[in-house]
Specification:
The protein is of the alpha+beta class and 503 residues long. The protein has 18 helices and 13 strands.
Length: 503
């Protein structure tokens, strides 16, 4: 039992601790080209690329050399083979934290399909003149001084002073007594704030021009003053076509987002949430300190907790589970339904809270916590909509769920092998040595065992080119931001001397 708990904790550390550096692209095509079949499992070309590029690969296979690409393929096949060895329903999948994670990831994927269908299916042809207008300015770059104003009431005074003094910095210094404004170099990027990009890239600005106020987020307003600007003239048809395509995708995505926002608004229009004040503040008092512990004190506390994997959400689970005196207390009411603290605790296991304000102060926690709960409940109703539309049966949702499930089963089987052979200490101390001396032969034996059930799409494999740049891709502002599991470092072998070619 102790070994099982260690495996659960190890897996949870992989699922919760996920370094993020890049946003996920738009939803891929629903139909995926199969690269390899392994028994009743398979890996698509798109999944192969995502698994290889959306999380850092080990040094021994991080480039685009043919040998490295084969190691990547062998590693992903090895993950599936270990999942097969683990069986259809190993005990790891019965763990409450793991099952909640898998269900949460599945429902998150369903909501993403809903967003895509509701948004993109409603978008009509973007007006050509608008696309061309932005495409003209897409290569411009700026150096700006900027300031964020979190108070709408202050805008009137700022605007009044700017009419008399065209130095943004002097005006802000005069009002707020700051030393200086921050500077930043800006170039167009599709995942930058929409309001900022739309303001900067629909005309050319000159030195000292003031841009703003630009509303972004909740009651935040941005002013910028141009320090330097470079207008890059587009002198090739190819570049113009590229900019046109990028702009069209950008405007289409923004328009789709507006449609989805309206859809959510209509869905929630007649629903109001009412918190039970006494219970609400008891929960806030219990959880608030967890979110604001310093990294050092959090690490010290984790040493003495069961869920010592370095993630605040696990600490929240632990704290909520100890609130037995509140478990049956009404927490809030919505649409005629009462949610108890126990109901909230149960649901957030599969839907961790997402805070809009990433830099809130302790005194702002209660209000931000309330908004996070409201967003969670909104997703509850969106998930119901997705279930009604049977999005749980959509191929890409099932494939995504199987990818995570097989990853978990493979790590479970891996650690059974490591423990059975007394390799725990060696694996923790020298993972590379463990792979070369013990895992390579083990994976090789599984390749032979399942060889008759493995089929490769050679043509598809040879057409794949991998990005060499290490990165981790995440999906922002969702309960589970990791797009793919950690790369399965299971073998360093590159030989494809097993299986057969697809017909």
């Amino acid at each position: 039992m102790q070994k099982f708990i260690k495996i659960v904790l190890f897996l949870l550390s992989l699922l919760f601790i996920f370094n993020c550096s890049r946003k996920e692209p738009e939803i891929p095509d629903f139909e995926e080209n199969i690269l390899v079949k392994i028994g009743d499992k398979d890996i698509s070309v798109q999944e192969f690329i995502r698994r290889a590029e959306y999380t850092p690969r080990p040094n021994y296979c991080r480039l685009n050399f043919p040998i490295h690409k084969k190691i990547v393929l062998n590693s992903l096949v090895a993950e599936k083979l270990l999942a097969l060895e683990a069986g259809s329903n190993p005990e790891i999948l019965e763990d409450e934290s793991i099952s909640s994670f898998l269900q949460g990831k599945k429902e998150q994927a369903m909501r993403k399909i809903l967003k895509y269908e509701v948004g993109h299916d409603q978008v009509k042809q973007i007006v050509t003149t608008k696309v061309l207008k932005m495409a003209r300015y897409l290569d411009n770059t700026y150096k700006v001084k900027y300031v964020n104003i979190p108070d709408k009431k202050a805008l009137k005074n700022i605007e009044k002073k700017l009419k008399k003094n065209r130095s943004l910095e002097k005006v802000i210094k005069d009002i707020y007594e700051v030393d200086s404004l921050q500077t930043r170099n800006i170039k167009w990027h599709e995942y930058e704030n929409d309001a900022i990009m739309s303001s900067l890239y629909t005309k050319t600005y000159d030195k000292d021009d003031i841009v703003g106020p630009i509303k972004w987020g909740n009651d935040n307003y941005l002013y910028m003053q141009i320090l330097e600007g470079e207008e890059r003239v587009i002198n090739s048809d190819q570049r113009l076509r590229q900019n046109y395509s990028r702009t069209n995708e950008y405007l289409t995505r923004n328009k789709a987002s507006q449609y989805y926002t309206n859809y959510v608004r209509d869905l929630m229009m007649n629903k109001s949430i009412e918190f039970v004040e006494e219970t609400f503040y008891k929960v806030v008092d219990k959880l608030g300190p967890i979110y604001f512990k310093t990294d050092r004190s959090r690490r010290e506390r984790l040493k003495n907790t069961l869920w010592g994997v370095g993630n605040v959400e696990l600490q929240v689970d632990s704290s909520l589970s100890k609130m037995d005196n509140l478990k049956n207390k009404p927490f809030f009411t919505i649409d005629g339904n009462v949610w108890t603290v126990g109901d909230f605790t149960e649901y957030r296991r599969k839907h961790p809270l997402v805070f809009r304000n990433k830099r809130m102060q302790p005194e702002e926690f209660a209000e931000n916590f309330k908004q996070a709960v409201i967003d969670m409940v909104t997703n509850y109703y969106l998930t119901e909509e997705a279930h009604e539309k049977n999005y749980d049966k959509v191929d890409i949702v099932q494939r995504n769920n199987n990818m995570w499930k097989d990853n978990i089963k493979s790590y479970y089987q891996l650690h059974k092998f490591i423990s059975k052979n007394g390799l725990d200490s060696l694996y923790n101390a020298d993972q590379m040595k463990t792979i070369k001396e013990y895992l390579n032969p083990y994976i090789d034996s599984l390749q032979k065992k399942y060889s008759e059930q493995i089929y490769f799409n050679k043509e598809a494999f040879e057409s794949i080119e991998l990005n060499r740049k290490p990165m981790a891709v995440y999906e922002p502002n969702v309960p589970w931001p990791g797009v793919v599991p950690k790369f399965p470092a299971l073998t360093t072998e590159h030989s494809l001397d097993y299986g057969q070619l697809m017909e």
